[in-house]
């Protein structure tokens, strides 16, 4: 297999790159509200995890999991939790800083943990199948995978093209190499995020490119299955997603002029408040089901603090007491 994929620098690509640069510049100009961004990033990373899993056939939705306990034996929840764990690691201080083989294997280990064998390239032949079970693409032989991945890494690290187009070409090529038996799409999208993040084109983790890909899933599939070497259409699709998602988050940030008391809440308390706001009236047991790993005493303390700070109101004094939002 030869990695000689290319794209033409069309007028559309030039216009999309300009829009991305403008959006990036605006984000750097907008006053940074730390707590607001932390909350948006938390939601964005969860969205990316949900939509990345949905692209691969997971049926859960963001609304169903945003207040759900993902530490579960349920396979679909585990798929989302694994991607979220990998994303949180990418945005942590412990993350690797360089695109290399170890990064790829590390991400695969995190994404496929407890699902299938992980952290190793495939040692058997594989292909990509459509919904009817027919092979639409035969991946290169397993003995070629290590060298192809090394070539892709070296080419990507040496390229002087724009970061967004570099990320797009990497993603397409990675999926064609198909280095694993399972998890290629999930790992490929994580690696695209990593490449964007290196130069700030991930918009500080506030956008979910996976949401755009899932919304346009059939187009995404069709473009990934292109058999020719010219992948201009895929690059345009990828850049369009960056434009749409970045403009969406900029609109949200522009509407936020200052931090509220709610923005400064600790993450778990913020989530408890959102849970109560979404369901209007909830019991302690209902909240507990979302935070199974948190001691009851800690949850009671969180609720008391939210009550003391006039975010919520407790109705009743017995075990059957309910909680509702004041606003």
From TrEMBL:
Active site: residue positions: 178
InterPro entries hit by this protein: ArsR-like_HTH (IPR011991), Fido (IPR003812), Fido-like_dom_sf (IPR036597), Fido_containing (IPR040198), WH-like_DNA-bd_sf (IPR036388), WH_DNA-bd_sf (IPR036390)
Keyword Cytoplasm: no
Positions marked as site (Important for autoinhibition of adenylyltransferase activity): 56
Keywords per UniProt: ATP-binding, Nucleotide-binding
Domain Fido: 99-240
Molecular-function GO terms, alphabetical: ATP binding
Domain of life per record: Bacteria
UniProt-listed Pfam families: Fic
Entry keyword Endoplasmic reticulum: no
Annotated positions binding ATP: 182-189, 220-221
Classification via PANTHER family: FIDO DOMAIN-CONTAINING PROTEIN (PTHR13504:SF38), FIDO DOMAIN-CONTAINING PROTEIN DDB_G0283145 (PTHR13504)
The protein's name: Fido domain-containing protein
């Amino acid at each position: 297999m030869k990695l000689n994929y290319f794209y033409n620098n069309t007028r559309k690509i030039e216009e999309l790159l300009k829009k991305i640069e403008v959006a990036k510049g605006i984000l750097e100009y907008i006053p940074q509200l730390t707590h607001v961004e932390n909350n948006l990033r938390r939601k964005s990373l969860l969205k990316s995890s949900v939509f990345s899993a949905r692209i691969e056939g997971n049926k859960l939705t963001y609304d169903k999991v945003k207040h759900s306990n993902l530490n579960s034996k349920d396979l679909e929840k585990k798929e989302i939790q694994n991607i979220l764990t990998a994303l949180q690691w990418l945005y942590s201080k412990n993350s690797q800083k360089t695109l290399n083989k170890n990064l790829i294997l590390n991400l695969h280990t995190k994404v496929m943990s407890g699902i299938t064998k992980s952290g190793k390239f495939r040692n058997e032949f594989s292909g990509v199948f459509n919904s009817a079970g027919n092979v639409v693409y035969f991946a290169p032989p397993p003995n070629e995978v290590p060298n192809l991945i090394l070539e892709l890494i070296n080419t990507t690290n040496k390229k002087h093209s724009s970061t967004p187009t570099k990320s797009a070409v990497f993603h397409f090529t990675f999926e064609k190499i198909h280095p694993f038996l399972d998890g290629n799409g999930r790992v490929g999208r994580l690696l695209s995020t990593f490449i964007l993040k290196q130069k700030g084109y991930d918009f500080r983790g506030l956008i979910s490119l996976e949401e755009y890909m899932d919304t346009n899933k059939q187009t995404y599939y069709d473009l990934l299955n292109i058999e020719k070497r010219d992948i201009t259409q895929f690059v345009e699709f990828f850049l369009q997603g960056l434009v749409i998602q970045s403009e969406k988050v900029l609109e949200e940030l522009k509407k936020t002029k200052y931090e509220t008391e709610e923005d400064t809440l600790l993450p778990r308390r913020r989530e408890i408040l959102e849970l109560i706001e979404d369901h209007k009236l909830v019991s302690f047991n209902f909240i507990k089901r979302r935070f199974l790993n948190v001691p009851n005493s800690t949850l009671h303390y969180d609720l008391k603090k939210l009550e003391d700070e006039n975010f919520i109101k407790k109705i009743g004094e017995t075990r059957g007491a309910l909680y509702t939002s004041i606003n």
